[in-house]
Amino acid sequence: MRRLARLVLAAVAAVALAACGTSAADVRPVGSASASRYAGAELTEPYTMPEATFTDQNGQKFDLRTGSDKPVVIVFFGYTNCPDICKTTMSDLASALNRVSPETRAKVQVLLITVDPQRDTPTVLKTYLARFDPSFIGLNAPLDEVKKVAATMGVVIEGTTKTADGYEVTHSTQVIGFDADRKGRLVWTQGTSIGDFKNDFEKFAATQG
Predict the structure, then answer these.
(1) Residues 172 and 187 sit within 8 Å (Cβ to Cβ)
(2) Is pTM beyond 0.85 here?
(3) What is the mean pLDDT of each run of 10 residues along the chain (209 residues)?
């Protein structure tokens, strides 16, 4: 069953992440789909949020593990010049959180960690996130540090591809949900609906705090 779960999650990730990125580097085993309470994949071996310091969209230092006092932290690695998937994901997360109860909304913090720190300065991140939800936090750090943190969450940042307008960054696009102990227990892949995000956020937040 564990081997099957690995293969299922890997296959879903590989198909869903074709346009903007690549499949996850660290595919964790998931529980039985029939027993899951969530639309996202519930990990039987959660990720541990690492110790790391970033610069947020206001130019302030942000400790990844302690920077938010919200019991639920939703992490997505993306960048502002991404032509499609990153914008869609951020929009879907914002829409889902607009539909949850005030109690749930108060428990959830979304973090966007840029995979393009050269272009995504704090000012750029702030302007970008304001289009979706000004409460979202954008984080910037040297690329080597971003890659280290991403790897601990099963996220791949492979490199850049030249385009007519500059370059695009190849990266995987899963969304990871961390609990109050900063354990990454849920993973959502590209194509997760707004309704599924909304329902999962409410269920997950209800278990925290």
Answers:
(1) no
(2) yes
(3) 39 41 56 72 96 98 98 98 95 98 98 97 98 98 97 92 86 97 97 97 95
Task: Say if CB 138 and CB 120 are below 8 A apart.
Answer: yes
Token pair, residue 60, equals 């302030």
Give the E-state strand segments of 21-172 in sequence order: 41-48, 53-56, 61-63, 72-78, 108-114, 137-140, 157-163, 166-171
Q: What is the 3-state secondary structure (H, E, C) of 38-80?
A: CCCEEEEEEEECCCCEEEECCCCEEECCCCCCCCEEEEEEECC
Angle at 102 between CA 96 and CA 108, to 5 degrees: 60
Write the single-letter amino acid at 9. L
Asked whether the beta carbons of 98 and 199 are under 8 A apart, the reply is no
DSSP letter (8 states) at residue 30: B
Angle (CA) 200 125 12, round 5°: 40
